[in-house]
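Q: What would this chain look like folded?
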Amino acid sequence: MSFHAFNMGCNIIAFAKDNTKYGMCVSWAQMLDYDVISLLIGESSVTGKNIQIGDIVGVSALSKPQRDIALRFGEHHSDTFDKFDQNDFFVENTAILIKDAKVTMKCKVIDVKHLDFSYQDYFVILRVLSSSTIPREEFLSLEEL
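A: My prediction, written as structure tokens:
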């Protein structure tokens, strides 16, 4: 398998919906198949509350130089803080992707499950529609935050 979507690190999920941009840092991310990934999003997340089956979203696995982006997207909820004020992203349809991330993926949400055993967190399953990788970059790890 040549596609390596994640490292246990800093991944941004972001999308635009109803004239609002949503985005957050997610560390719980996993490939389930060659073109299917999953993310675990906390129950109090504004992003998680607004994601639905059929949405087109961006998932960006950040590279080492993007520490400040990870901190900004992990700082506050999307409805209390403008995480997109630095213009370090690009948009494909409703998917918002981070420029210069190690991996960027435009995805379609294919399922959202609420996990009773984890405080009603959102287990989001996505099909990767397209992706891009910058081979020279290294993944930003949680230890580097």
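Residues 11-133 form a domain with the Pnp Oxidase; Chain A fold (CATH 2.30.110.10).
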